[in-house]
Amino acid sequence: MHEFETTLDLLKSIDHIYPTVGLKCDGCNLGQNYYSDGYRFIRSGLFFHKECTSSNMKICNVYHPQHSLHVKVVSENENKDGQCRICRGNLPKLYYYCLICNFAIDLICAKKEVKMKIEGSKTHTHPLSLVPKMIIFTCHLCGLPDDRFPYACNLCDLNFHKDCGESTHEINYSCHPKHFLKRLTQVPSYTDGKCCMCGNKLHNVFYHCSICNFSVDVDCARNPPPFTLLNLKVHEHSLNLMPQRNFVCNACGMDDDPNPYVCSQCNFMVHRNCIDIPRVIKVNRHAHRIFYNYCLDAGDWKCGVCHKEINWTCGAYSCSACHDFSIHLRCATRFGIWDGIDLEGISENTLEIKSYEVIEAGVIKHFSHEDHTLKLKEENDEANDLCMLCKACIYPILSSPFYSCMECNDFIIHQKCAYLPKRKKDSLYKMWITLNKTYEDEERICGACHIISNGFKYISDNGLITMDVRCGSIPEPFIHESHPLHSLYINYSTEDKICIACGDKKTMVLICEECEFVLDIKCSTLPKLVKHQNDKEHFLSLCYGEKTKEQYWCEICEEKLNPEKWFYSCNHCGTTFHIKCTIGDLIWIKPQKKDDSYIHLTLNNRLTRPICVSCHSRCQFESFLNLYEGIMCSIECLHKYV
Question: Which SUPFAM superfamilies has this protein been placed in (predicted)?
Answer without folding.
Answer: Cysteine-rich domain
